[in-house]
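As described in the Methods, two query proteins were run sequentially through the folding procedure within a single session, without resetting any intermediate state between them. The first query and its resulting structure tokens are shown here.
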Amino acid sequence: MPNLIAQGPKPEQRWRRQLLPGQTAVVGRAAGRWAVPWDDRISRQHAEISVACDKLTVRRIPTALNPIFFQGCQSDHFDLGVGEHFVIGSTRFQLVDEHVALTLDAPAPNAERTIAHEALQRLRFRDADSRIDALARLPELLAKATSDEGQAADFVATLLDGITAATFVALVEIVPASGEISIHQWDQRDAAGPPIQPSERLIRQAVHERASVIHVWRAADTAEASRFTQNEGADWAFCLPLHDNPSTAWVIYVAGTTADANGGLSPDRLQEEVKFVDLAARLLGNVRGIRRFEREQASLRQFISPVVIEAIADKDPEEVLQPRKTQVSVLFCDLRGFSRRSEQQAGDLMELLQRVSGALGLMTHEILGHGGVIGDFHGDAAMGFWGWPLDPGQAPLQACRAALRIRDAFVCASQHTGHPLADFRIGIGIASGLAVAGKIGTVDQVKVTVFGPVVNLASRLEDLTKTLRASILIDAATADSVRPVLSADEARLRRVARLRPPGLQTPVAVSELLPPADSFPEMPDEGIVAYERALDAF
């Protein structure tokens, strides 16, 4: 894939961007990643570029104030081939091939030095202020990148700009499975110069020794060495590994020329460049590590509830997730009407799946939003629980509040014809008691869930909502816990019956959790009092 290089009148006014097939972008002074902020003769949005078949199509945007010059003439629309360039204002844009070939037949260096990280730490910069300024700007630059490729490109460009003696910088990976070398990002100061050929031997040596390695070819040897690892006149190269991920082999490769008054090299100055790159690489490693952690966190949130992730953030996960006995409140929520709808939509299961996923998403949103943990999915039902890994003191109250919000959401959906969830109803069962919660499963597969009789009871209560024609049923332990703290403006309780759920031996006092009277006038407070008096009399 080709790269576009923008070069302003000053060496530091420069960037290199990779172009993907089919990609379209806008170049201008305020064009995000493709911005050219140093040239006031370039409009905020000056040219639209797109890639097809290794050619770059350039089209001047009608609102752009200044012309685009291609092959010495003004042109508003043209195709740019590899090696060709166009000019806007004082900035030159050149299309170059990204391919870089490695060489195995590089001559042996006149001097070689391996520098451990500890030795680099002891080395002192002679111009520490400028080095610190450059390093201080790097984290912000890397953090602004929207992709790993953009981050790597900005990093390589920063090194090339910061090391004035460098003619070539590359970010290289040795693929663990095959041992092949892959050059992911690179840049060279002379875009029109001959292709660069980095030394494969130097790269593999740095990876093998896990240390910075310097190869030096003196000026007298340049004629022989000029066909590899650098542009004409370059006489050194060094390679150092990235330490952010031990499972991969990434290195930074830098080549260039640093001549002293006698035509040779300044070893101390060259080692300072190695230390500068080493510090910059560690900053890159930290930023990449943070980005990798954020991706892992985002991925984990699909499998593990946020409250669990927060609990293990600063503790040993094995210790936190270890199964333990605790008081929990378990909520089962099941869809009503699913079997009928699945039969009706047998010919369009994907559409049915989307609807069911939306219903389950609504359930899980409220469970997680009230500090619960998603324990499992059972077809068209979701199970959540409270009391682990946090203090179980508020578990019954949180479970009841989540249940009420789920009920309200489905009632609201039923009032809108055409809503994907309009013809679905729900039944919810909540039970509280002692259980084992944590990482439960086999040696082959585990999940974070809860285990014990209280889980079965919550499931049976959910099933009983069909028989008792109630939306939310709770057991006596849950009712006794929330009755003193739930105000009539938030919810009401109605003792329904004392019964033995199917499959269980112990009778249970069952109550219904109801919304406030103003939002559920079908059951006025007087009706609850009359029912409970009749129940006591019975």
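Immediately afterward, the second query was submitted; its sequence and tokens are:
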Amino acid sequence: MSFPSDLEISRGAQMRPITEIAAGMGLDLDDLELYGPYKAKVRLSALAKLAGRPDARYVDVTAITPTPLGEGKTTTTVGIGEGFKHLGKRSVIAIRQPSMGPIFGIKGGAAGGGYSQVVPMEDFNLHLTGDIHAIGAAHNLAAAFLDSSLLHGNPLGLDPLTITWKRVVDINDRALREIVIGLGGKENGVPRESGFDITVASEVLAILALCTGIHDLRARIGRCVVGQRTDGSLVTLEDLRVAGAMAALLRDAIKPTLMQTLENTPALVHCGPFANIAHGNSSVLADLIGRKCGDYLITESGFGADMGMEKFMDIKCRVSGMVPDVAVLVATVRALKMHSGHYRVVAGKPLDPRLDSEDLAALHEGMSNLTAQIENVGRFGVPCVVCINRFPADTPAEVAAIQQASLAAGAVAAVPSTHFVDGGAGAVALCAAIAAAAEQPSAFRFLYELDWPLKRKIEAIATGVYGAAAVSYEPAAERKLRLYAERGFGGLPICMAKTHLSLSHDPKLIGRPTGYTLPIRDVNLSAGAGFIYPLCGDMRTMPGLGAHPGGANIDIDADGNVIGLF
């Protein structure tokens, strides 16, 4: 008998009314805005109501450097949330809302998988409560204001060649990466080169994920820089007089969405900035609410520990004031074999069948990546528990080898987990290890101080976390670093933009590359989100569809139900 699809499992879920899920968190109807029986927005007024409650233990789920298929990090986050219920503990998970680009592309959705899912999964993956559309509308409103200002005499003196604010759409569409707008005569605007990013690359989403309330959101939007005047001074969205209208469009999107797992434990779903071009974490507001609603709050960071986790620690924790008690590092046998260089994993193509056979030699070679990422967790003074996300073909010898290597590298525990197949029951041992690790004394520390020079902060990440020997800067990057320091932005944290498929800037450098020079080709400012982001190598902010996109499998059946969704 074949294992059911994620959609089939989701459709068999015995969901409880979302009001009951909320009640278990200490929230009542006055704290909610209902979107049908199984989804609700949580009003931010709940923060004041919950303020006197004790804080939950705070757990961040991260991973080794993944294959292009991912290693089950969201599935693990959901499984942990379900697993604590089996231990008699209340848990809340806080995860990102997916972009529809990957859903209709190759990677698929982000609701978890197997018997560790957030439900209803169709709603989760398709629009949910419309937050990403609201973000796109707010972002594109600013773009329309900008081009209108240029047409009507350019009163702000904006140099068109310095404009950095593009338009966005939440679909993979490579044809929109580079475009020319304003063609067809004066009535259609001022002709200039521009382009589209995918919506989840928008600074507006990064702001929404990091703000602590509606007024903080409004202020951050106003600080967004869209370009420069000819004298070098910066033009902001406040200057364009559009920041207030953008904040108005986001009044509902700022509220986290409450859903549930297959085992009826609560899930807060909010925001989803990409971790390779933004900070890759769900919202501060969801975490601030969730930490008051249970014994454990489990969140996840995008991609590997060098990406989302580093930004979680150095950016998100600085904003929220919360620090993690434990980091869970997800690893799989197949990914570690890939890091040996003897196997290739290509998105959209069948896995190499040899990956299902025991290969301890390749596993040991690829273990260097696991070691590096455990050490990266340790740089922040946080206990590391390795979750071995176990697949049916993994042998006892392979699992034992990962456990031994993990403990040798400094992890406090390494536990195989079968939450995909067994739900929360398969994660009980993992949850027990997390609970034990959370009782250890905290020694949290940031990787760098904010008052360090920008280059010193960049190099701390590059040499410490990525293992680079040195950093090189293109002339454009040098100019931008000087400009931002002169304009008073030198005290911002760093949000590195690089590939998620390697510890380095080059996706071909698997395992644990060393001795290389990390190239910084450009540096951009996200003044509203509150970080500087250097670009390492060639980063795409608008993905493209493959020859056989996943969306080709999605349809509606005779009863109007979605089919083909994973």
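Residues 554 and 560 are 12 Å apart (CA to CA). We note this only descriptively and draw no conclusion about the first query from it.
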